[in-house]
Every structure is written in C-alpha cells, then in structure tokens.
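Dear colleagues,

As part of the handover before I leave the project, I'm documenting each prediction I ran so the next person doesn't have to rerun anything. This entry is a single chain, and its sequence is reproduced below.
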Amino acid sequence: EEELLFTTPVSPVDFTLRKLRPIGGSPSFHLNNRRRLENEEIKRPLSSTRIVQALIMEELDKSEESIQAILLDLIINRELKLSNVRYNVPKPFFLIVAVLPHDFDRRTVNSQLMDRFFISYQFEEEMFENYSSSSNPLNRPSMTRRQALMKQDEIKSLLEKAKKVYVHIDISRYVRDIVVGIRTHPRVRGGVTARSSQDLVTVTKSLAAIFERNFLTPDLVSIATEKVFSHRLRILAINERDDQMEREDMDSNYAFDIVAEILHIVNVPI
C-alpha cells in the first residue's frame, strides 16, 4: 500500500526562480544571456519529477506576487515547470497547507489563491512549533520513510462513502440560505465564489462519511461553514463618515463573527 508522505515546512522563498542576470552584468548581457538559455532549454527535453503529496508553507502572506502566481498555477494546472524540469502533482491527491498567523493581512494574499484552499483551521502557535521541531531532521533519528497516518485505500473509501451521502431538499435550502446570507452581508466585499459553495457541500459530505452517516444534518453544515468561508472572506471596515472610501479591515476575527452571525440568523431545518 502506498503511504502518505510529509515534508518539513518550507517557505515560499524556496520557489523563487533562479536569477539569470550575473552580479554586475549589464542589462544587454542579461537579455542576451537569457535568450540563449531559453533556446537551450527548448532544445533539452523536460525531465519529470513528482512533487511530494503534502507541502507545508510558511509566511505565504510575505511572499511576492510572482511566488503566489506560481503556486496558483501549480494548483490549477497540476504541474510546475522550472527551467528544464517539470514537477508533476501526485495522484490521487495533492495537499498544500499554508500556515498563517491569526492577524495576517488578508490583502497580501491573492484572493484567487486563497479561494483554492479547501478549508481553514485555527490552532495555537505552540502546536505548529512542536511539529516543526519534530520535523527537523536534526531533532529526530534518521529514517527513510515515515509511518503513514492514513493509507490511500482509506482515503479512497471515504471518498466513495461521501459520494453516496444523501442530501435532503431542506438541507440544500439551508446551505443556499447560508451562502446567500454571507454573500449579501454588507461588510463582505465581493461576496463569495461558486467554488466556495461547492466546497461547502463537499466538506459537509466528507464530514458525514467520517462520522459514518449516509445523510447530511444541519450540525454538520454549521461545522463546515466556518472552515470553508472564514479564510475566503474580504471584510470591509466600518466607515465613520459617509464620505470615506471603502477599505478592507485587516482583523481576521470579523470573518468568524460574520459566519457566526449568519448561522444564527438562518432558520435551521427540523
């Protein structure tokens, strides 16, 4: 059986493209040298390398736009080309975990990239620090492979069970009312995407499969709503005067408050 493999945390700087311009070189030399290298890379066949199944990234909010664009391209196209090497996304899944502080500035992360993250989870900083320490090769005995937390057969089994989960019409309306409530909230900028609505249903079905249920219940929907929407919302600050320009509020706690407010307002099916 294939195992789920993990890597030590990496920073977006690890994806920085190699600089082609030599130190002290002239701009003309840089352009000519770059053209020559590009021609050589076209002639050379691309070597294929598989990316690890689980990738943990820190300080995504401090990365440059080009780095975030590379990551978004990797998620969408399922492969990454750097120089003459093609990095293929493993099957049947590819997991990216972005570790961000509670008070990170949401404006620093591309909204399309953030929308591609399936769910979010809040945890104490010490929890990740302990993991980072144990993940350091200097702090653990040498080993060739780690013991898998979940087998791929278990993941495939959960996937099949999730597909068979029954969704009652009242639950569908409940999900729709939640999405509409969040989308039309006066402090939510730009609403929510269709992808997030689909992800809400998928996460809820997955939770049902984990709890060994073959149908959806309102409590599962409420649990999934915060995990799916809280990291995607762009919150507008409250204007003290009518003539103020609209601006985003950097406090991420407001997103949780808005989700909780909508869950409290929407009628729960019996």
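The beta strands are 47-50, 54-58, 79-82, 85-88, 95-99, 188-189, 234-235. The first strand starts at residue 47 and ends at 50.

All the best with the project,
I.
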